[in-house]
Amino acid sequence: MAQETLEKFEGENKENNFKQTEIGLIPEDWEVVRLGEVAEVKAGQSAPQGEKYFQNGKYPFIRVQHIDNNDYKIMGWDLINDMAVKDYHLKLFSKGTIVFPKSGAAVYLEKRAMLPFDAYIVSHLCAVNSKSEKLLQRFLFYFLVSQKLAKKKAEGYPTLNLSEVKEILIPLLPLSEQRKIARVLDKIQQAIELQDRIIEQAKNLKKSLMQKLFTEGLYGEEQKEMEIGLIPKSWTLVNLGNVFQLKSGKTRPKTILKYPTDKFRYPVFGGNGILGYSDQYLFEGSTIVIGRVGEYCGIAYPISAKAWITDNALYVVKKKIVYSEYYLANFLNYYNLNKFSKRAGQPVISQGVIYALKIPLPPLEEQKQIAHILSIVDEKIEVEQMRKQVLKELFKTMLHKLISGEIRLKEVEI
Fold this sequence. Notes:
With 414 residues, the protein is an alpha+beta fold. The protein has helices at residues 2-12, 35-38, 82-87, 137-146, 162-166, 175-216, 325-335, 351-356, 364-404, and strands at residues 18-21, 24-27, 31-34, 39-43, 59-62, 78-80, 98-101, 113-114, 120-121, 125-130, 169-172, 223-226, 229-232, 236-239, 244-248, 266-270, 273-278, 286-291, 300-304, 308-309, 313-319, 342-343, 347-348, 358-361.
């Protein structure tokens, strides 16, 4: 579908005449203006400090961390009260205001979002609103999404001054064409959001299945009371130290490629999946990898290929009893190993802590059947995630081609 969409617009697009400008080649009937000429560029204000400003809060206050790193939307907010607005002289920004980080390391993330409602924003955010009848706010948003504002910033603590934001050069094209561009990109974004909902529903289904299968089993059999609670009568309670032997991974290879080649074909696994591909492998066969430190501490997943495991993960080097890797990895995630980690700056979990944990283990055949049920849901999640990725690639391609004028929509019915 994504490829058909792209081919449709390319096929209907007429041959264009271009002119050379300060921003490169653009269609002859487009203009180039400075952002400050057609838009208001402002900054937020200092964040209220102290619990009293958040008690009985009713007004949303947006911080840099509330903008999603991967998708162009606001994912959360704080609630402040009238005292905060008065004491800090906060200015309310209207729904639809474009916001993005202007100072700090978050500038490198190139986050962009439009306020989903009227809100106050932190001083580290830049706020942009069209002030010209010739510039559609939604088109301006997509133009700013297409720009990498941090690419000329030195490493360290980057800052985008409002004055330099105002100097950004933008194409000004017919309003009707701006509307069409915004509508096409909106449709792709809506499709991506639909995929997000489908993926979330599938993940919630898996959580529900895990809750039932890991506590009641498959057969509705009578339960027995154990020190961790009720478990099916045919299940046994075992220490993980009697189930497997773990080993820490090693420092990642010096050269890792993003995609596999004939030589670099061995996946390199870290705390949460594949980091890339190497020409070396550390382990051969089926095993379980467990995140050992940091953000993905305690996350477990099975692998069954020659692979390298990095030192931020543990992996099973010996099975002491027969079990289903897929079942056990899923159970460990349901069990939430992270809650047993030590937090001295960041979460860390040791082999000893894992070995001491007691888990209920069903008969092998029941493990395999439970694993099969969960694998069906996992396959569904993986397919939907791939569809989302295809749509994101389509969005990126269409964004570039439409904002540059490579594809024109002036004669295309949307």
